[in-house]
Design brief:
The chain has 400 residues and is of the alpha+beta class. It has 15 helices and 6 strands. Keywords: Coiled coil, Ion transport, Magnesium, Membrane, Transmembrane, Transmembrane helix, Transport.
Length: 400
């Protein structure tokens, strides 16, 4: 609707301005004669004021359209059955739905540069890993910009893997009554992870595989280029290696950020315990924690973290698993080892580039020494032809 108003306003303003310019260039019309014989000409200021009003209306419509487009972001909501729903809502609707703060949601803004982050809040996990910007709760996943090229495979993987829990749980219920359902019961025991951990695993697997694939592509291009440079030093090969080295530096920084975030999370048991959303939800529904845990949005992330720890302590009193983060720790360690292996590949590539640079510098020093010796000899024997000979040798030693 705003777009139609904007187009109509622009068309009207353009027509009115064209008519005004045409009137200024054409012969002035005959002025009307009023009673009493007075001849009055219409003031051009009125037409200019009308034109300004139309232009202002068009600008307001355009600003409203931009504001609406910027405020509403595309999200996809995936529930425990894998069903996806597209949500075109503003940030306040998302904050109210998952009960997080604006500062946490700002981390997921693609227009802002934030490092890789995994935050545990009272009722959600805020996940910012490269192009994966998601909010995970105990029973649903909110993924930003689902139509993006790198996000589409993650959505498909979530839709494929999240419903398995429901199917397996049904099989578990039937297996108790049916003796032949022993295989299904074993499958249940292998997949008892909470919903938030299954969603987190999909995200970690996707980002680790993505960065490892980019590293493999870089290795495929870099090693032949370095070998070619060692065999033939030229401006073309040097420029090619320079670009590959810049790409390697950027990719190393991205991998390092993900690795550091996983390492920091593994070093803090409290942060890992904050990611147990299902456990906290079960503790909040119990009589002990239900009377002491208020059901409102915390005033700040710091207070929210304290309330989270208090809720976890209450749940631990009932279930006796306050420090039980072994399941999540094993999950994070697996992907930490994978991302650390990717970083080791990049480190090896950097060392190979450094060795190649050292080799090239040795070759250049050798060529320079040869040039100096030739120049000294030619200056002594042929003073007039030394410059020409030096240029010829330089062209042979350093072809373009």
């Amino acid at each position: 609707m705003e777009r139609k108003i904007y187009i109509a306003a622009c068309t009207a303003s353009f027509a009115l301005l064209s008519a005004t310019i045409g009137k200024e260039d054409s012969t002035p019309p005959i002025a009307p004669r009023f009673a009493g014989g007075d001849v009055r000409t219409p003031a051009p200021a009125a037409e200019e004021e009308m034109a300004r009003e139309v232009v202002a209306l068009a600008a307001e419509a355009q600003a409203a359209l931009k504001k609406k487009t910027a405020a509403a972001r595309s999200w996809i909501l995936l529930d425990s059955s894998g069903e996806g729903t597209i949500l075109d809502v503003d940030k306040y609707a998302i904050m109210h739905r998952v009960q997080i703060h604006a500062r946490d949601l700002r981390i997921l803004d693609p227009l802002l540069s934030y490092p890789s982050t995994i935050l545990g809040r009272e009722r959600a996990i805020v996940l910012n890993l490269e192009h994966i910007k998601a909010i995970i709760t105990a029973d649903e996943v909110l993924l930003r910009d689902p139509a993006e090229e790198n996000v589409v495979p993650i959505v498909e993987e979530l839709q494929r893997r999240l419903p398995l829990a429901s199917v397996v749980n049904n099989a578990h219920g039937e297996g108790r009554e049916n003796v032949t359902g022993q295989h299904d019961v074993e499958a249940v025991e292998e997949d008892e992870s909470p919903f938030e951990f299954r969603a987190l695993e999909v995200a970690l697997e996707a980002i680790c595989s993505y960065l490892d694939a980019r590293t493999s592509e870089l290795e495929t291009a870099a090693y032949p280029a370095l070998d070619e440079l060692t065999s033939k030093i030229s401006s073309r090969n040097l420029d090619r290696v320079r670009k590959l080295k810049s790409a390697m530096t950027r990719l190393t920084a991205r991998v390092q950020k993900v690795r550091d975030e996983l390492e920091q999370l593994l070093d803090d048991d409290d942060d890992m315990a904050d990611l147990y959303l299902s456990r906290k939800l079960a503790g909040a529904s119990s009589p002990v924690s239900g009377s002491s845990m208020p059901n409102w949005l915390p005033a700040s992330p710091t207070i929210g973290s304290r309330i989270s720890r208090a809720s976890r302590a209450s749940a631990a009193t009932i279930h006796g698993n306050e420090n039980d983060v072994e399941e999540l720790e094993m999950l994070l360690e697996a992907y930490f080892m994978q991302i650390d292996g990717t970083l080791n590949k990049l480190t090896t590539l950097r060392e190979y580039i450094d060795d190649t640079e050292d080799y090239i510098n040795i070759q250049l020093d050798n060529h320079r020494n040869q040039l100096i010796q030739v120049l000294e000899q030619t200056t002594t024997v042929f003073p007039s032809e030394s410059t020409y000979l030096l240029l010829s040798l330089s062209a042979d030693l350093f072809p373009l």
